Amino acid sequence: MKRLLSIELQKIWLNKASRVLTLIYFILLSFIALMASVKFNLGISKVQLAEMGIFNFPFIWHFNTYIAAWFKFFLAIVIVSMMANEYSYGTLKQNLIDGMSKREFIKSKFLTVIFFGFCSTIFVFIMSLALGYRFSATTEISIVFSDLEYLLGFFVKLVGFFSFCLFLGILVKRSAFAIGFLLVWYIIENIIKGYLSFGLFPEGNTAANIEKLLPLESISNLIVEPFSRMSVVKNIGTQIGMDNLKDYDVHYSSILIVLAWTLVFMLLSYKLLKNRDL
Length: 278
Fold this sequence. Notes:
278 residues; two-stranded antiparallel ribbon; 71% helix
């Protein structure tokens, strides 16, 4: 496993575009810390984001993982390019000639996906811990380390999304087309959701329950938006008579759905590679 992962990381690091995108990704993640200094003008006063409680424990785990997940597209490009380069530069064929099996090849790619997901999760964990201890109103251990399931949801979210991108990279062989196909699939899912909600099942929760099974939708549902959970937003909602009944938890059923899709993507990737004439 170590040898396979080392081979893939060397390929990524030796490719200038992949190296730059990877560095940009982690630099952008660190920019979350800059949000602490952002101020908004509210009439006669200025409000700093950090003072609004976004870095309070345990809310910070929800907020930071949700924001960090938006930057996953930079690593998605790296994942897709990683696969496209195998075809462009002939390294895939050379690896197979050198004795690597197709199963080992897919395994090496999946290990890279897990590695990126793990490193991202550790990075967000350390950054959130530092920001929380700097700005949180409460730093009791029992509160600090509660709601850590958001980190698990973040990790599974990245692994699932990157596995989908890897599958697309193998399917279409070109990074630009793979990213384009990702956009097309996003549109297809929204069309399906619209048809389910307004066509087949306009009433009840049937449409919503089916939508949760769609790949991109299931990945998106792992961590819902945290903004309506903030006390400032809740107070405004209370004043205008709107009760917030949204469920913000990371559900293990949602994790299982994404893990199931991850397995499907990897099996399909292997099947494609196994049946393809290289």
